[in-house]
Amino acid sequence: MAEQQKKVQEQDINQLRKVRREKLVELQSSGRNPFEITKYDTTCHAIDIKNNYEEMEGKQVRLAGRVMQKRVMGKASFCNILDQSGNIQSYVARDSIGEEAYKDFKKMDIGDIVGIEGEVFKTKTGEISVHATAVTLLSKSLQILPEKFHGLTNTDMRYRQRYVDLIMNPEARDTFIKRSKILSSIRRYLDGQGFLEVETPMLVSNAGGAAARPFETHFNALSEDFKLRISLELYLKRLIVGGLERVYEIGRVFRNEGLDTRHNPEFTLMELYQAYTDYNGMMDLTENLYRHVAQEVLGTTTITYNGVEMDLGKPFERITMIDAVKKYAGVDWNEVETLEQARALAREHHVEFEERHKKGDILSLFFEEFAEEHLIQPTFVMDHPIEISPLTKKKPENPDYVERFEFFMNGWEMANAYSELNDPIDQRERFRAQEELLAQGDEEANTTDEDFLNALEIGMPPTGGIGFGIDRMCMLLTDAAAIRDVLLFPTMKTVKE
Predict the structure, then answer these.
(1) Which residues does 42 contact at the CB level (< 8 Å), separation at least 6?
(2) Do 172 and 141 fall within a single domain?
(3) Where does residue 273 rank: exposed (0-12), middle (13-18), buried (19+ CB within 10 A)?
């Protein structure tokens, strides 16, 4: 029965498409091809009229948008027009636009793009509207929009045809408008702190700066293999060496990893580096930046995600990784002296590890297993083991650990920051250790970057650096369930015909 209904529905849609194409042919035959119109000057958007009705009442306006609803009632009709800002009603009467124009209006379809010129007024029911004196067909829609009362509910189709999603679902449109405002707010804050926005290569010979598997490609002109960057770090640090003391970049990075609600292989990362500060300075910057963006974009420092309230107005908690594991797993890593002890604890607590993992790696596994999910309120987790931090300065009083923090909210890692390693000799040793891991089968390990080492030998000042996951930030600030909900065009498996 369902299959039969689907076939009938497809037949109906095909017939509607045929009718629309016939209407287009009729228009073109009469010399009124809508696709030949190149310009339509507007004076406002729907929201301008609604927000400033008292000032605009009785005034002539010109606006353009997509026909979303139409009610034809003899000599007068109503239609709803959708532009970027939202919907507004238009009253279209035969006596106001002329008989021929009214006939043309009645032939217009849901989805057509029109220009409306007319006078702002309120209907008897109090709805702010535009009394049309002219209606111009600007583009003909040849496809059928989803059923208007239920919108576009098929999640897979929403991601594949985002253009339809933006038309049918106001919440999707609002999310991406808000994402744009978040990025603008970040830039305003950093520019105000004296940072320079820069751009660095996406195609690189050495994809370093993070633990991730890169995408690989071949550059024909140079007959050389390249990789898509997995991080922004190493080039931005070169700029610190060059004397640009505060730099940041917001850009796409690419990691050859799986897809889930928080991961997409192509995503937006922001990294910034500041000379003459350390990871404590990065904590202060992160706290101030998050408060600034939330207040500017949302009008509050208290946000709610999936029904859980998080307070950005209070000082963010600061806890070491060792203390977090002690708090949530009941294991005091200060008492773990050997790799054998660490492995025994892992087996006892059912924490899976690999033969190549050292004591610090196992500490990190304990943290991931027992602590992360509890870090709902804004929290800085500090002082990671050196084994998982190849680009970070050691803690002078305890060289087994480094001056690094990860910023958590909602149980998610939101940012990762270091007091940057600027000792070229130490950095070479760290790269060598990464090469050993690579040889043991760790596809996410870094390889030695000789040019970066040369830059460090030129001399890099003490520097603090941080990487922010912009997509996760947007998820939290827009209450979006999945990363695909904040990516306009997420990565999707190709559908074969």
Answers:
(1) 62, 63, 64, 115
(2) no
(3) buried
DSSP per-residue letters across 127-171: -EEEEEEEEEEEE---S-PPPTTT----HHHHHHTHHHHHHH-HH
- 57: CATH: 2.40.50.140
Q: Does 387 share its domain with 440? A: yes
Q: What is the domain count for the chain?
A: 2
Domain ranges, residue 221: 168-316+377-486
Same domain as 202, residue 109: no
Q: Are residues 140 and 189 in the same domain?
A: no
pLDDT value for 149: 43
Q: Could you give the 3-state DSSP secondary structure of residue 353?
A: coil
Work out the mean pLDDT of the chain and round it to a whole number: 94
Sign of CA dihedral 121, 126, 132, 135: positive
pLDDT for res 21: 96
The domain that contains 442 carries what CATH number?
Answer: 3.30.930.10
**What token pair was written down for 203?**
């195609």
The 10s digit of each residue's pLDDT in 446-491 is: 889 999 999 999 999 999 999 999 999 999 999 999 999 999 999 9
Question: Facing residues of 81 across strands?
Answer: 67, 88
Locus of tokens 């998820």? 475
Task: Check whether 496 has a pLDDT greater than 80.
Answer: no
DSSP run (H or E) holding 269: strand 266-275
Q: Which amino acid is at 68?
A: M
180-198 tens-digit pLDDT: 999 999 999 999 999 999 9
